[in-house]
What we know:
The protein is an alpha/beta fold and 389 residues long. It folds into 2 domains: 7-174 and 359-382, Glycogen Phosphorylase B (Rossmann fold), CATH 3.40.50.2000; 177-357, 3-Layer(aba) Sandwich (Rossmann fold), CATH 3.40.50.2000. It has 17 helices and 13 strands. Helix 10 packs across helix 15. The longest helix has 23 residues, at 360-382. The chain starts with 6 loop residues before the first strand and ends in a 7-residue tail after the last helix.
Amino acid sequence: MAKETGRILFVATVARHLLAFHVPYLNMFQQWGYEVESACDPAGEAEAFDPLGVKLNQVPFGRRPLSWSNLRALICLVGILKHRSYALVHVHTPVASFLTRLAARLCGFRPVLYTAHGLHFFKGAPVRNWLFYYPMEWLAARWTDGMIVLNEEDLTRARGLPVRGEVFLIPGVGVTLEAFDKVDEAKSGIRQELDVRPDVPVAVAVAEFSRVKNHEQVLRAWREVVRTLPQAVLLLAGEGERRRAVENLARDLGVWQNVRFLGFRNDVPRVIACADVVVLTSKREGLPRVILEAMAAAKPVVATNVRGNRDLVADKANGFLVEVGDAAGTATALVALLQDKNLGRRMGDEGKKQVQAYDLSRVREEMAGIYRFYLAGEARRKNGGLQRS
């Protein structure tokens, strides 16, 4: 693609989302010649944008939709869109995406792309989600030039919304598969760092500490696991507002000695490499990268039977699916994989075969096609071929 000029804006509620999932796409636009900006609540990550060459617009998003700070965030977004010119805006995460699309509507800005990393209204979702989030998404869809979804169920939902432009299904945010080929358990060094012997059964969960990620289920399951495998260790990587509550639950359940809280990690391939099994007990998902990473590392997965998870995990093929809230079933699946290394290897090898379609290079090329389509439309719009709404 020929070098272009102009600005691109990526928006998310908090900085960590952009830094964790979208840096390859920020870099891609820079390679094309665009100036790239972000808009988010930095939440302690402001300095991380400097080495990326990405301008940070600090926006006081509240993670709760009805937070008063979101009114200030909307005013801030309107100011950004009115006073700076962008070739394209790409929005992520529920609160930020709604407010940015509303600001774009108020400012008459187009084009706006929106990636739904897991719609809040889905099969089995609480009624309150349908009553609150569905009307929000239905309204905002009318201000959306392109909507990107990550799983089949969301694709069906999105096609029922009055999206102004196209709806695309993309296989997640992409995983750099070779990063997992280069790390094995012996070389990862994580067990040595944590003083965990090579023969000790290890499960790993990589997830933000939030109600959605449902660490309570895996901890209640782990209580049953250690009754069968007293030396087993559960590694929990991540940060979040519920970390302290989860730590307290581990103490209350009597599994504190069998759980390690690793905090935020930027070496996930090393952490996963030391595991016998990867576990994710979320109440909802879009298309979870940690499962893709587990598959890339040839690790079996135990995951809840929810949208996104079941797009990746075929029960009894590359892992086990368990129901949300079923701690006993989760424990049974974990024990089976921790005890039977041959079973784990067979499932891990199957996952490795299936993950090739999610390689970052393939996903990036699909996203590049979408971006080029809308950037070409913006060029026509500037030349008078299209009208701004």
